[in-house]
Amino acid sequence: ALIGGLCFQVSAALKEGRVTPTELCRRCLSLIKSTKFLNAYITVAEEAALKQAEESEERYRRGQPLGVLDGIPVAVKDNFNTAGIETTCASNMLKGYISPYNATVVQKLMDQGAVLLGKTNLDEFAMGSGSTDGVFGPVRNPWSYSRQYKEKSVPKSHSEDEESNWVITGGSSGGSAAAVSSFTCFAALGSDTGGSTRNPAAHCGVVGLKPTYGLISRHGLIPLVNSMDVPGILTRCVDDAAVVLGSLAGHDPKDSTTIQDGFKPFELPNLTDVSKLLIGIPKEYHAPGLSSEILALWSKAADLFKNAGAKVIEVSLPHTRYSIVCYHVLCAAEVASNMARFDGLEYGHRSDVNKSTESMYAATRREGFNDVVRGRILSGNYFLLKQNYENYFIKAQKVRRLIANDFVKVFRSGVDILLTPTTLSDAVPYMEFIKEDNRTRSTQDDILTQAANMAGLPAVNVPTALSERGLPVGLQFIGRSFQEKQLLTVAKWFEKQVKFPMIQLEVVKRHHHGVVQHQKSASVS
Amino acid sequence: QKVTVEVLDHLEHLALVDFRDSEGVERLQKAIQFADQLQEVNTDGVEPMDTVLEDRCLYLREDDVTEGNCTKELLKNAREKVEEYFVAPPGNIPLPKLEERDTFLQGS
């Protein structure tokens, strides 16, 4: 029952000896095995995890735990370097690549005693919004196997249903979102460049936090877009996100884009009085394609704040609809540059072609990258051609400033937090998702999340309610730069009001005829 | 306007990745079309933005050696090596021209 618990509950249980880190670790590992069909994990570091759990147990025995995260099983997206563990970015280019070092955020988690269970699945090189385009196959949304979803789906033959009806997790941090959502870990790291943490968080019914750019170190995070990437945090509740944030944030001498201001970890207050809050509702986020369900939910949420005494006003972020175009250009340009390091010489896949350096590079990259990655590299190089540089790259950088300024104006006018939907709809079935190509999908799905990356602002998805189809829908809060405490305080208040239901995961064991149910219990047993 | 074969060839050279098939070329055409929407935005007098942290001073650390001496570990991930060298095939040999290369663009 602890398995559905939250960090601070488990932490208390560990301190009091009601459960040991090794028991917890073993339970998670076993659950990973029984939920293998979700394909959330690329690598499970079973031995290393148990060893870490044993070390944690020793610390608890001596009464010297390192902190709240000591002994807590966590998972990390497979685009973060993890020493001694394969890091693939779900690409053939890095299959077999064993990281020689830990990303700073991974090191920080381990310094706090967290137990690293494994690396989670993603879209290849984090390019995508479905977690469907990696070489290890797509990730399945755990909610596809929930009682809530099954009750609402049109009945066909029972087994056919599951195989063809499963829905995507969203992406690109789908593996991490699925891992947290299916209770195989208590927190997971994702990355967020255009919404890659918040999007799967919304579809999987978990909290997905995108911190302010510059707050958390990117050292060891294999880069996609250096000026927008941030490590993302996925947890089952807002308080947990604050705890993980507290252990990760702060200046890193190895990442010169982290700010030098001192960071003090914080506990979230229990907000009771929202009357001093000014919530902004950006009208442009009523984007074409927004489902009427989510629109209604968004409206209900605004009313929730209003009725509790907060001031809620409509605001305008006029350049919102260009954010996705701007991203498209800047992302491709930075990708063209960042992917140039993969040439087979020092790490990763290397082709057998050996005639010349150039032909070896070309063959290596031909063999190592999928269509999506190659497509973005080629587009990026196009936008960076001398004849195009001004009209595409520089132009996009100018539009970026306009987008960032939109937010500055709104926050300057007194708005504390913006409230928007996170996704246009609930999770679609995989069979439907793959009918459109990756770029089209990303364009559609990132529309509500991308602008926050453009402006570097903190944003969080809070699971809000279940859709008509029994699937999670989340809402997004966007805050001021480096005001994570305020952002998460409001998010926590909202989370308390909406009481999002827990997933009733039904794991059918194929060789037994029974149905094993895993239910969350808020209490510890 | 469609992208010319010369430009496509040039891109394959610069990027050292291939378009592979007509779908790849079509993908680029669509990407350009999509990006052209940026022209609708009036950016007169607007400065390009490199980073959201432009108002801050870039952090420079002291020029002290704090880590290194991990040659063995770094060499572990390379396929071709000799002693402490990464081995590359001969350089100074340009990629063959379009007519001689095995690329989809040949015959375009």
From TrEMBL, chain A:
Gene3D superfamilies: Amidase signature (AS) domain (3.90.1300.10). SUPFAM superfamilies: Amidase signature (AS) enzymes. It comes from the Eukaryota. The keyword Transferase applies. Keywords: ATP-binding, Ligase, Mitochondrion, Nucleotide-binding, Protein biosynthesis, Transferase. The keyword Protein biosynthesis applies. Residues 27-488 form the Amidase domain. It comes from Herpetotheres cachinnans (Laughing falcon). This is GATA amidotransferase. GO terms for molecular function: ATP binding; glutaminyl-tRNA synthase (glutamine-hydrolyzing) activity; transferase activity. GO terms for cellular component: glutamyl-tRNA(Gln) amidotransferase complex; mitochondrion. One of its GO terms (biological process) is mitochondrial translation. Pfam families: Amidase.
UniProtKB/TrEMBL annotation, chain B:
Keywords: Transferase. SUPFAM superfamilies: Glu-tRNAGln amidotransferase C subunit. Coiled coil: none annotated. The keyword Coiled coil does not apply. Pfam families: GatC. The keyword Transferase applies. One of its GO terms (biological process) is regulation of translational fidelity. One of its GO terms (cellular component) is glutamyl-tRNA(Gln) amidotransferase complex. GO terms for molecular function: transferase activity. NCBIfam families: gatC. HAMAP family: GatC. This is GATC amidotransferase. It comes from Herpetotheres cachinnans. The lineage of its organism: Eukaryota, Metazoa, Chordata, Craniata, Vertebrata.
